[in-house]
Amino acid sequence: MTDSAPATPAVPTTAPARPSDRFVAYVHRLCASTQARAALRRGLGLPVERCNYLHRYLVPWLRDHDEPHQDEVRRAYYAVASLIAARPRSARDTPTAQDLPVSWYERPNLGASLGQAVNAGVMKANSAESALHLMARQSSDAIHPSLPALIRQLLRGGIPVDWAVLLEDLVWWNRSRERIATRWLESYFRTTATTDHPVTENDR
C-alpha cells in the first residue's frame, strides 16, 4: 500500500478562545466553497449596505455569537471576511496566524506586517510609512476602501496577515484610533529596526 499525498493544511477543528479567532476560522471554512468565497469577495472595500451577497453567510454568525451591531463593528467583520475570501491562491494554503504558538500580544498587527514587507523588499520603506501615517489620521470609513490593495500587495509578496488582530483593530478603530495607530507604528519600527534600508532616488 502506498502512502497517500499529504493533505492541504486545514483550519483547526478546535474552537479558538477569542471571538475574532472563531470568526476567522468560520470564514476559512466558508471559503472552502467556491460559491461562498466568490460571494464574500464581492464585499471588498464596500460598506455593509452594499454587501447584499454577504448577508446570508455573515448575519447568522453575528446573530449566534452576540456580536455588537454598531455600524463600524459590522463593517469590520464584513471587511475581514471579504479580505480573507480574496486571498491569492498562493496564500490560501498557508497556516493561519492564530495557529502559531504565541500569546495574543505577540501576534503581528498590520504595522508589523508592513515592516516584514519592507524587510523582504515587497514594499519600499517610504510607501509603508506613508500608508501608516495616512491611516493614523483617518476614520475607518476612509481606511476600508484602501485595505484591499494594501493587503493584496502583502499577500502576493508572501507576507502573512493575522486576520483576527486586524479584525479587532478595525472594530475598535473609531473609538481607539490613536492607541491602535501608535501600536501599528511601534510594531512597524520594531520590525524594521534590525534591517538597514538605504534611501534611493525613488524614496525621496
Break the fold down into its secondary structure elements and pairings.
Layout: H1 19-30, H2 34-41, H3 55-64, H4 71-85, H5 89-92, H6 110-119, H7 125-136, H8 140-143, H9 147-156, H10 163-192
Helix pairs in contact: 1-4, 1-10, 2-4, 4-10, 6-7, 6-10, 7-10
What would your notes on this structure say?
With 204 residues, the protein is mostly helical. It is 56% helix and 0% strand. The protein has ten helices and no strands. Helix 6 runs antiparallel to helix 7 (125-136). It is globular and about 45 Å long.
How would you describe the shape?
globular
**What percentage of the residues does DSSP assign to strands (E)?**
under 5%
Please summarize the sheet with the most strands.
none
Structural class: mainly alpha
Provide the gyration radius in Å: 17 Å
Order of helices and strands: HHHHHHHHHH
Provide the low-confidence segments as ranges.
Answer: 1-15, 198-204
Helix content: 55-70%
Number of strands: 0
Distance between the termini: 62 Å
| Tally of DSSP helical segments | 10
Look at the structure and give the mean pLDDT: 85
